[in-house]
């Protein structure tokens, strides 16, 4: 039985993909201070190239450095589409009952699904903000993201994965999620 995050990953892939297809300027800055639009999309392409391997039980050592460097080439949209297609297929059949070893340590596969959904959701907002597209987030993904981010945001910031949380009094769950992950909506 797929987990809620696993069920929402295809929606996240579609939403992010629609944003990628509308990019006009790849060198524009994003809310991720060190990344351009191209860098941001490249990050997601790398993450989703890795997904089929990790979901199949391969280790980081087995995958090696095959996804190091520029995976976007001359056609970032096609690179995204290819990565998303492989990731979608892997998530559709993935058994998330086990654990895997990641760069940050060992974690349950269900945690991996939650992190991938948050990545798609929040980086989708980053891409939308950077490219002037609608910044609305999937409410179901936001709810799951908040459930994960509330107890983990400080730890993720300490690891350097995200910027430190930004205080907010907003009642909007999307604004709360973005703030927890170091973004000003």
TrEMBL record:
Residues 14-128 form the Mycothiol-dependent maleylpyruvate isomerase metal-binding domain. This is Mycothiol-dependent maleylpyruvate isomerase metal-binding domain-containing protein. The lineage of its organism: Bacteria, Bacillati, Actinomycetota, Actinomycetes, Pseudonocardiales. Pfam families: MDMPI_N (PF11716).
């Amino acid at each position: 039985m797929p987990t809620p995050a696993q069920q929402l990953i295809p929606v996240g892939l579609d939403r992010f993909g629609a944003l990628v297809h509308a990019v006009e300027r790849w060198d524009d800055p994003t809310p991720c201070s060190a990344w351009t639009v191209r860098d941001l999309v490249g990050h997601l392409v790398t993450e989703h190239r890795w997904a089929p391997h990790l979901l199949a039980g391969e280790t980081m050592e087995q995958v090696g450095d095959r996804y190091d460097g520029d995976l976007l080439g001359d056609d970032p949209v096609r690179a995204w589409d290819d990565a998303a297609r492989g990731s979608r297929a892997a998530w559709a059949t993935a058994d998330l009952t086990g654990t895997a070893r990641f760069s940050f340590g060992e974690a349950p596969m269900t945690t991996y699904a939650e992190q991938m959904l948050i990545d798609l959701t929040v980086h989708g907002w980053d891409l939308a903000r950077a490219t002037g597209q609608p910044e609305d987030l999937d409410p179901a993904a936001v709810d799951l993201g908040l459930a994960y981010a509330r107890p983990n945001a400080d730890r993720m910031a300490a690891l350097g994965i995200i910027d430190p949380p930004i205080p907010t009094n907003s009642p909007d769950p999307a604004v709360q999620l973005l703030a927890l992950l170091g973004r000003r909506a």
